[in-house]
Amino acid sequence: MSLFRLGPSSRVIIPNIYCYCHTLFSTLQVLSAMAGHVGYKEHDGLFAPGGSMSNMYGMLLARYHRFPEVKQRGTSSLGLLVAFTSIDAHYSLVKSAMTLGLGADNLVLVDVDHAGRMSVQHLKECITKARKEGATPFMVCATAGTTVLGAYDPVDAVADVCQAEGIWLHVDAAWGGGALLSPRHSHKLKGIHRADSVTWNPHKLLACPQQCSVFLTRHVGLLKDCNSASAAYLFQKDKFYDTTYDTGDKHLQCGRRADVLKFWTMWKAKGTKGLEQHIDQLFEMSQLFADKIRTRQGFRLVMEPECTNVCFWYEPTSLRGKRRHPQYKQLLNAVAPRIKERMVKSGSMMVTYQPLRERPNFFRLVLQNSQVDQSDVDYFVHQFEELGKDL
Prior knowledge:
Blueprint: E1 2-5, E2 11-14, H1 16-38, E3 44-48, H2 51-66, H3 70-73, E4 81-86, H4 92-99, E5 107-110, H5 120-132, E6 136-143, H6 155-165, E7 168-172, E8 197-200, E9 213-217, H7 222-227, H8 260-294, E10 299-301, E11 309-314, H9 328-346, E12 352-356, E13 359-366, H10 374-388
Parallel strand pairs: 4-5, 4-6, 6-7, 7-8
Antiparallel strand pairs: 1-2, 3-9, 8-9, 10-11, 11-13, 12-13
């Protein structure tokens, strides 16, 4: 027990064992519920400090699953290992490849289609090419909700390839995983139950306070086999209770925050139905914004939104009807930074922009707060017109 003094003559005793047991119970409860929505019949998992670390867990387990000897002997005898993800995948995959000794050059970037979804045909070609060059393909990371476009890779088709090739499939659903809680939108992640591991961040689409990131796998016990160091001062086997509840050794960290409590509390308060309604409202308002600007003068969609990312260009009056002008792309590229500057200085709203490959800078309105309603959507449209009309 720990003793905390509250004042000169008052004190309260807080039993740490209660706090620990409650945290452990809520962790197991939340992980089990999330695994159920993924479609796992059996599962293991943990809370990680962000989606980047969750994705690294995926790469780490994929390598250990293929080469369990790496834990003791290291990577020197494994030869050239290659992983695959799309060109629009999160940059954390590159960092994972760098950190784990794979090397950024050995994370092969697969082409995407017009909507930003991984090309299954090109994935097959990349795997074949890697094998011909003497490399060992060991992991594919599909993305469910890419950072910029919000695209959902065809997970089921990618799973077919991984199953045929004997390759670990990890799905980065950090952003788009919340759609699993909505019967209207869960089809976007069809086949995710076939993944070997999944990243899912409740602090993104579900709007849980940061940080709250979950890593799930259908391989029970693999996290501990891969990561345990069996520190004798922590994980004694002769305790009076079932030591399988000592889950700390499957983490890479030792001390860490109890990130589960904020999500457990939110889920208890809103209920699964409440989270479903939250997701449906976000998708509905995103579609409403896309519908409003689709035919509105000055606006042009980059693509039809798949998630709650609505990507678009805004053309001020001076650029309208001039798309054939030799400097049109250059001029359009300059519009978004100027509007963003005005946006920040006026304090009216905060919407990001970026280029993407051959596309000039475009805006990316991303909805995460389900309190946004039609009046807010109208406000967004009006603000872009006001901030950009005289450029």
